[in-house]
Amino acid sequence: MQSQVSVLLPVYNGEAYIKKAIESVLAQEYPNFEFVILDNASTDQTPEIIAEYAGDERVRVVRNSETLPRLENFKKVFALADEESRWLKFIGDDDKLLPGCLAEMVRAGEKGKNVGLVSSRYYDGERLVNGILPSGQELETGPVLLKRMLLKPEARKAIFSPTSIMIARKAYEELGPFRTDLLHADSELFYRVLNRYNYAFVHKPLTVTGFHSGSGQAGSIVSGHTFLEAYLIRYYNLQQYDNLVMTQLEVERIKNNLVGDSVGFMLGRLAERDFKAAFTHLARIPAACSYHLPVSLFYFIRRGLSKLLRGEKITLLAR
């Protein structure tokens, strides 16, 4: 029998999108999966929409008696997964699994040894993200990929959101659960998984992550949490990545990249006259990294002047 997958959907007031999310899961042709939906005491029409699918034997619905904090609910749905499941696959209420998602991810994950994370090409809203492994390469050693992600911004396309990832249950049990004090607890865990486990990739789009003005991802970018929590994931957690060998020069490169992201965010906020957000962010940049500020600021000024001279549009904050 093919390995069991638990597809996990935590939701709170998701009536606008959840029907498409549910139907994208139930349309999967993979024969051995359960679908756990955890309703976080929704107050809109979400419970009625979920009830339409309760007759499907693959669906298990749990409803909280009271609304939990978002990440507590996130952690709880993972705890509800069947103990027999070898793989855990998250989906948000505004996300979708594309045809063949489960089958392709399981195939890739079980092709290699000690695979802890499986990803693929995916859609970020309507934008296709291709990943970073060369065409034809489906497997990568976890610590090798982790080091690339720490040093090269483009390599972080390997890890995006929980919907684009399937995680091995053994990896989650060893290194989880998700922290509840971080908005990006998923990325924080996935980085640590790569320190211990290998990575598999499917060279076709298999998921769609919702990106709209009300999405958590959009809010995190605009608020600056994305950039602040990156200091924890990519700098403070370096001591936990004990399968990596980093030179001091490489550590400085990581710090410089982090500060550069912060400067871009702060300039974007200043351009919008959101002075409070900009200066609050500035105060939260770790002292161990802050001496990179002048170089990063000079870089943005030079780049901006070059674009102005060429008559190009200046973009400071991009997702």
Query: How many domains comprise the coordinates?
Result: 2
Return the average pLDDT rounded to an integer. Answer: 90
The helix/strand order is EHEHEHEEHEEEHEHHEHHHHH
Helix content: 40-55%
In percent, how much strand structure appears in the residues?
15-25%
The count of DSSP E runs of length 2 or more, i.e. the number of strands, is 10
Shape: globular
CATH architecture classification name of the largest domain: Alpha-Beta Complex
Distance, first to last CA: 41 Å
CATH topology of the largest domain: Spore Coat Polysaccharide Biosynthesis Protein SpsA, Chain A
Radius of gyration: 20 Å
In CATH's first tier, which class of the largest domain applies?
Answer: Alpha Beta
Note down, in words, how this protein is organized:
By secondary structure, the chain is of the alpha/beta class. The chain folds into two domains: 5-217, Alpha-Beta Complex (Spore Coat Polysaccharide Biosynthesis Protein SpsA, Chain A); 218-310. It has helices at 18-26, 46-51, 70-79, 101-109, 142-151, 169-175, 185-196, 216-223, 225-234, 248-271, 275-283, 293-310, and strands spanning 5-11, 33-39, 59-63, 87-90, 96-97, 115-124, 127-129, 139-140, 166-168, 198-209. Strands 1, 2, 3, 4, 5, 6, 7, 8, 9 and 10 form a ten-stranded mixed beta sheet that branches. β1, α1 and β2 (33-39) form a beta-alpha-beta unit. α9 (225-234) packs antiparallel against α10 and α10 (248-271) packs antiparallel against α11 (275-283).
